[in-house]
Amino acid sequence: MQNIPEVKMGIVAVSRDCFPESLSVNRRKALVAAYQNKYGKKDIYECPICIVESEVQALQAIEDLQKAKCNALCVYLGNFGPEISETLLAQKFDGPVMFCAAAEESSAKLMDDRGDAYCGMLNASYNLKLRNVKAYIPEYPVGDAAYCADLIHDFLPIARAIIGLRSLKIISFGPRPSNFLACNAPIKQLYNMGVEIEENSELDLFESFHKHDGDKRIPEVVADMEKELGKGNKKPEILAKLAQYELTLLDWIEAHKGSKRYVAIAGKCWPAFQTQFGFVPCYVNSRLTGKGIPVSCEVDIYGCLSEYIGACVSEDAVTLLDINNSVPKDMFDGEIAEKYDYAFTDTFMGFHCGNTCSSKVCNPTMKYQKIMARSLPIEVTNGTLEGDLTPGDITFYRLQSTADNHLYAYVAQGEILPVATNSFGGIGVFAIKEMGRFYRHVLIENGFPHHGAVAFGHYGKALYEVFKYVGAEKIGYNQPKSVPYKTENPF
Question: How much is the pTM?
Fold first, then answer.
C-alpha cells in the first residue's frame, strides 16, 4: 500500500529517583526482548539512555529518538516513574505516544524490588491532563513483558493513523452536488487534527485533464487496467480516457502535496462530470483507493478522511458506501433467516456506483452507471466497477464534523453475507448486530450522513482508539440490547 506511513516505535523507560534504577532497566530490556521475539526488530527502537529520571534526561531521550527517526513513542514505567519528566517526554515528542507500566514479577521481590508502577500510572495520567497532553493508555495498561509487548503492538495501527493524519492533505474538486447537503461539514476540525485541505473547482481538474491529452503513459496504464479487469473488461473503448484521468489525478497529487506527505481526494462525479469528461470516475477512484490513496465520491471530505484512517489502521484497501437500502423481506426469509443469527433489522445493503477496489469485489466487471443512464446516453456513463462485494468481516465507521463544528464518530463491526444482491453497482448485503437500534439512535440521532467508510476486517478496537485520540466528543457503536441508548424509548 502506498501513501501510508511506516511506524518506528521508540521505547523509553522512566524511573522515580527513590526507586532502584535496575528495576526500569531490566524490565525495559525484558520488554524489548519479548517484543522482538514475538514481532521482530524493525518496528521498535530501544532508547540507549538507561532510564529517564529528570527533565534533562527527558530532553536527551527525545534528541536520541529524533536521531533514530522514531515517529511514535512508548513511555514505559519500569517503576513508579517521575511525574514531571515522563509527561514532559510525551509533551515534547513530535508523534503519537502511549504509556504502559510493569507489573510485579514475584512475591519474593516485594521487599526490595517492588516497583509500584501500578500506582505510578495514576499519577502519570493525572499529569498528562495537567499538561493537556494526549496519550494512548490501553484498557489495562499494567503487565509483564509479554503482555506489554502485545500492548505496544496493538498501538501500531493507532499510531500509524495519527502519524498519517498529521501529514495528510485532502484535495477536493468542486462543491457538493445541488440538493446533496448531507456530507457538507465545517473544515475547522480538519485543522484541529493537523490535516490540510486544498479546495479546487472541477473546472481546474477539467483543464488539467485536457493537458494530459495524448500523454505517452496512457497505453501503459490501459494495459494495467486490462490486466486487472480480465474477463470483466466489458467497456474497452473507455479505458484510454480513464487512464488519462488517473494520470491527471496522480500528477495533481505530486504537484500539490506541498508540505504534506500523504494525500486523500474528495472528488466530483456528477451532475456535469460525465457529460463533460465523457465517463464516470468510479473505476479510477477504486484503483487509487486500492493503492492507499482514498478517493471519495460526491466531494465527501470527511468520507475520504475516514477512508484514509481505515487504510492506515488496516493497511488494506477500504471503500465508501451509501448506507443504502433495506434487504427485501423475501431475500431475508429465503437467504438469511434460517442460515445466520441475524434479525431482519440487523441487515441492510451498502452500495455505491462502482468505487470499490477490484480485490474486494466478486467477479468485478466494467459497466455503465445505471442511475445516470436513466436520463443520459449510456456512453457518457461508462466507468463503474460493478459486482457483489466480497463476503467476510467488515467494520463500518465514520469520523465527521457536525454542522455546528463538533467532532463525532461511530464504529460498528459486522460482516458482508454471501448472499447474491440481484442488483447493480458495487453492493453487498451487510449484517451488523443491533443495526436497527444503531441506525436510529446513533446515525439518525446524531445527524450522520448516508456515506459510511468500510474496512475489510474487524478493526473496531483500533478505530475507536484513533477517534478518542483525535478528540471525538461522541463515539457511537452498536450497543447490545442490554445497554439502552440515551434517546431510546424504554417503553
Answer: 0.95
Confidence of residue 176 (pLDDT cuts 50, 70, 90): confident
| Beta-bridge partners for 14 | 52, 77
Start and end residues for every CATH 3.40.50.10940 domain found in the chain: 9-166
CATH 3.20.14 domain extents, the chain: 168-476
Nearest CA to 454 out of 402, 386, 391, 384 is that of 391
Q: Which residues contact 270 (CB under 8 A, 6 or more apart)?
A: 177, 280, 298, 372
Report the pLDDT value the prediction gives residue 18, as an integer from 0 to 100: 63
Residue closest to 384 by CA, chosen among 361, 417, 401: 361
- Class in CATH terms, 9-166: alpha beta
Beta bridge partners of 361: 389
DSSP character at residue 93: S
Residue 420 has pLDDT above 90, yes or no: yes
Coil, helix or strand at residue 323: strand
Residues 6+ apart with CB under 8 A from 221: 243, 246, 247
DSSP labels, 333-396: IIIITTTSS--GGGEEEEEESS-S-GGGBSS-EEEE-TTGGGTS-GGGSEEEEEEEBPPEEEEE
Enter the C-alpha cell of residue 354: 462502482
Q: Give the mean pLDDT of the chain.
A: 93
Give dist(CA 114, CA 315) in Å, integer: 40
Choose among 487, 302, 293, 310: nearest CA to 396.
Answer: 310
Is residue 456 very low, low, confident or very high in pLDDT (cuts 50, 70, 90)? very high
The CB density around residue 3, as the number of other CB atoms within 10 Å, is 19
**Whole-number Å distance between alpha carbons of 353 and 357:** 12
CATH 3.20.14 describes domain 168-476: yes
